[in-house]
Amino acid sequence: MVYKKGLYLKFNPEIVDQPIVYRLVKDYDLVFNILRAVITPGKEGIMILELEGTPEKLREGLNYLREVGVEVKSLEQQIIKNEEKCIHCGNCTAACPTGALYVEKDTFYIRFNPEKCTACEFCVAVCITKAMEVHVESEVESFT
């Protein structure tokens, strides 16, 4: 059985230039999909990705990441837009890296497409009315 796991990875400056994600593919037979990445050589790196593989390989791959010094957080959450709190100011659209939040041209209302959302929480940080909310989902099986 194959599972997908969303992850937030943080690389410290000492390892940011190493082929860590490549090793996940080669050594652990995992498939990855990078959803967002900011990696600067010599500085900290952040990556949001999906890993796909068997539960055993996912567990091994996550252990490898931690062993080499990558901070790993699971993306077992989703972002929800509370329509009652939203004042359609647009702050969130400027912060959203995936285009999940956008301005509807006819009405100038802020719309949210959860299918594009990577749960990076940038919109949550900038929302002045706290209309963007984090909801934690329960996971079917934990690989950590």
Protein topology:
Blueprint: E1 3-11, H1 20-28, E2 31-39, E3 45-53, H2 55-67, E4 71-74, E5 77-81, H3 91-95, E6 101-103, E7 110-112, H4 122-126, E8 132-136
Antiparallel strand pairs: 1-3, 1-4, 2-3, 5-8, 6-7
Keywords: 4Fe-4S, Electron transport, Iron, Iron-sulfur, Metal-binding, Repeat, Transport
Protein name: (Fe-S)-binding protein
Domain 4Fe-4S ferredoxin-type: 77-106, 108-137
What's the domain count?
2
At CATH level 2, the architecture of the largest domain is 2-Layer Sandwich
CATH topology of the largest domain: Alpha-Beta Plaits
- Name the overall outline: elongated
Uncertain segments: 138-144
- The strand order across the widest sheet is 2-3-1-4
- Beta-sheet strand percentage? 25-35%
Average pLDDT rating: 87
Portion in helices: 10-25%
Keywords: 4Fe-4S, Electron transport, Iron, Iron-sulfur, Metal-binding, Repeat, Transport
Domain 4Fe-4S ferredoxin-type: 77-106, 108-137
Organism: Thermodesulfobacterium commune DSM 2178
GO molecular function: 4 iron, 4 sulfur cluster binding; metal ion binding
Structure, described:
- By secondary structure, this protein is α+β, with helices and mostly antiparallel strands.
- It has 2 domains: 3-74, Alpha-Beta Plaits (2-Layer Sandwich), CATH 3.30.70; 77-136, 2-Layer Sandwich (Alpha-Beta Plaits), CATH 3.30.70.
- 22% of the residues lie in helices and 33% in strands.
- It is built from 4 helices and 8 strands.
- The chain has helices spanning 20-28, 55-67, 91-95, 122-126; strands at residues 3-11, 31-39, 45-53, 71-74, 77-81, 101-103, 110-112, 132-136.
- The strands form 3 sheets. A 4-stranded antiparallel sheet has the order 2-3-1-4. Strands 5-8 form a two-stranded antiparallel ribbon.
- The longest helix has 13 residues, at 55-67.
- The chain is elongated, with a radius of gyration of 17 Å.
- The protein starts with a strand and ends in an 8-residue tail after the last strand.
- Mean pLDDT is 87; it is low at 138-144.
